[in-house]
Amino acid sequence: MNQKVPDQYIKIPHTVRLLYRYAAGPYMARFCKELRENKRLVANRCPRCRRILFPPRISCPDCMVRAADEWVEVGPGGTLLFFAELGRPGIDTRTGEVQELPASYACLIQPDGVLIGQGCFSHWLKVENPEKLREGMRVEPVFKEERRLGTLEDILYYVPVEE
Amino acid sequence: MAKRAAIVGVGQTYHKSRRPDVTQVELINEAVKAALDDAQLTIKDIECVLFGNMEECEGSFLTDCWATLGTGAYMKEGCKIYTGGTTGTTAAIAAAQHVASGLFDTVLVAAYEKQDESVYGMEPLGLVPDPLWRRRFRSGAGAASWFARVGTTYMAETGATEEHAAMVRLKADRCACRNPHAHLRLNLTMEAVLKSPFLLYPLRLLYLCPTTSGACALVVASEERAKRMAQKPVWFKDWVIVHYEIEGFEGFFPEGRITSHEQAANILYSRNGITNVRRDIQMAEIYEPATWAELQFSEWFHFAEKGGMWRMVERGATDIEGEFPINPSGGVTCTNPIGCTAMIRVAEAALQIRGDAGEHQVTRDVKTAVATGFGGSFWTEMVLLTKSLD
Amino acid sequence: MADRVAIVAVAQTKYEEARPDRRVFELAFEVAERVLEQTGLNNDDLDIRVTCSQDHLDGMGISDVPVSEVLGAQYGAEEKIASDGAMAARYAFIQILSGHYDVVLVVAQCKESKVDQNLVANLAFDPIYHRYLGLDFLSAAAMQANRYMHQHGITPEQCARVVVKSLKNAKNNPYAQRAMDISVEDILRSPVLAYPIRQLDAKPVSDGACAMILVREDRAKRLTDKPVWIKGVGSCYDAFYLGDRELADCDSLAAAAKRAYQMAGITEPLKEIDVAEISAEYSYQELLWSEGLGFCDPGEGGRLIERGVTGMDGELPLNPSGGLLSGCPTHVAGLSRIAEAVLQLRGEAGARQVPGAKTALAHGFVGPCGQLQCVMILGK
Amino acid sequence: MEEKMVFDEPYVAHYQYSVGAVGTKFFTELRDNKKILGMRCPACHLVYFPPRATCHRCLAKLDEWVELSDEGTLITYTVVHYSEPVQPQEPPFAYGLIRLDGADTCICHFLGEVDPESINIGMRVKAVFREKGEGNMLDIRYFKPL
Fold it and tell me: How far apart are alpha carbons C187 and C191 in whole angstroms?
């Protein structure tokens, strides 16, 4: 028998390719439709504790009761909770390759009408004057004008509102 | 009623970024064999094998099935437990519960991650965010931004400076250099830490956990069995699991709400008569996913009064020789095979109680230790381990 | 057993070919909501939630994040069993026996319509020797079916009888997705997927969810007047490589059953068990698993169905619900079997009720050719 | 409120699986010398194929390599009539579970050069090698009837 220890270990490449069908369900479907057709963000409410559920959901994590069919419009403008200049972009799970980014900043937005802790979301931030960026400043969305799909990508990016 | 369960065997691999010399199951087997050897048992003595990992990292489905080639679960009971970052503690807790149920005398629990199997390291974790909500926007604004935010908030609220984070990172490195199993052992200097580039201010690259390939395993036994065994048993005293909704992770805890860490600590301490944390518990192995988080989480676990952790760090209190050692293993910023990171916390805490941690054995006599897990959307798990049954 | 654990409520969705109207965790909430209603419990009463799902099936990492959220785990506890639903119930049972929890909500949910099941199953094969051959659970099962039929002289007609029985039984099950009167010839005429498995030998793609509440004995009486007790549980892994096993036997199922029977004090399963709900994704599995469960001697699975032993009027009605062949997603399967067994023992199984059922068996499995098997014995 | 919305989204992720020291030796011998190696467990005395570093029954470390015949017996098979993108062959094609002479366990692989109707369990088969090996299991193209 050849007892030579190989100095180069073999690796076997494999690419996972799957296609998922993500249903939006009645609550997110309403959100997506409002976004697509009316450029509006909507949230629903817990009938017991009255908190806003954003993104809209079937039940309240605090009470575990079914959400009321009671809708409120929130945002789409909001407060800049956090921002970060993007260094290395991540991998886009849809392609397995480096994601193309539409802006050089990422941010976290607290939409108008939603209390802290009741929902916020991540998005891109298009910045003209980085030195003027500060947490707590107002941000407004720039929407895609055509071929909106009903996802948050219908908003191209947010822009800071300088005072 | 409920029976007591003890850790009687601890095993882990030498953690590295790449292990081309072994397959996934061979890697798992290294930890399993180490744990069985430590317990002075063979696989024939084991009745049930529990298993956990984060399957996206390896792109494998039902990883427990293939893993049976390495865990020895063939013709034994068992199942797979998976809760993201907390998988390691959840699985350890599951092992304790299997024994405490009275149905099993010996349970083996193993967890692993072989992150060199993914071409882009941790990137398959991009599957974690909700596809209809935040999956597209994770670049730069995911976990890293949260840990940067922890840093800025912590400094603003407590008067700590950037150097305190550097001290924590240096302490982690000092510990890791004394732990042969640790992944990153860098012999850092303060200068080198402060030269590490910012990922996002004030989060330096060095403050984030690495991409690690490694495995960990525990043997858990019943009281009757443990007392007949050669290895010193380490007892599961209690455990607690506390979840928080994902908006907590991205949106921060609002005023008036306590964090999942505080909630877990409050439950655990009050249930076990722990009134003076640093007296009643002698050391901690916590899941600190970034250096800044060690400062913040420690306060949430009441290891220091609010805003006081950086002072403890300043006086070296959390060092191996300190009055309340935290992560003498080097912690998560030095070693992070995701699915088993939390289990390593339990394993290392058990070694400290046994006095078998070798070079990184803390000087304080450890009768009670706490190990924590962190994951999901701000989920916290705590495991309380003790030297004696009382 | 000194400490008893009761199942006090169960709920299932109707199983359907596709639920494009619901997110997968919404299905979980809908069944959880119903078991809370049945017991009058609310979120604060739940000590922990045990959920059961698989990331690669859900298309989401840590896919229990949204599940734990809709199940009210804010400041509460949830653990995910990434295995079959029966394993989740087994774990809840163990958690209560351990004394750490008194009230456990168990939920399994899955939308098979979300992703090509064969492609996900392919990822369960080891990437070193087998995955890139393109194997999946269907082609693996076909090899097992062929081996089993060859070794024991099981005929395609005998397998087809399983389908006939299942789909006929399913007509009495309001949750069933596929129910019909069909002939052995219809099945033998359906196109071959992987020889010897034909289209109608296989379970359909299915979406749905199942939930139940398990409690410690002293809590049961206040929550229901018809508690169902867990009498015995066993699980067991077989070897991973198909080539390491004798596929015509099912050693791991026999071992899992032995443990469950021992715990429940059962020595003659065919006599002592009144009704069984088992997970058979393909028709041959009902026959093979029947052997593993000791309902008949090895190799006698074909004659078992021919003699009508497992029919609704037989000695041991098997899958009065129609089983997986009538539609039920993988990973929900085992929990749904337990739920059906509970309904039988409570006398609430409607038109599919087995009269006077006192002892029931439920079974689930995961992995290629049933690598990990789980058996639960339930009693009134 | 009951509008059904469904978003189709691909998921693509790249992996590179370590075959380890044992796998590397096996695949190197297969690739360079068209030799098929198994491993014997010192405790269970079974010869395992495919090779592995550890016995899954007793966890003994395996280090005794055994050269296996390229001929064996068909234990079971299936003929696949459905198509999936991960299948490297167009249906209909056949998988077999083959026990090579000298081994106690079987390998799953393709059957080739055979009419699906004439395959039978127990038939003798022989490995057909790829001309130029690449260091994976497909260096055996398939097993053909003897």
Answer: 9
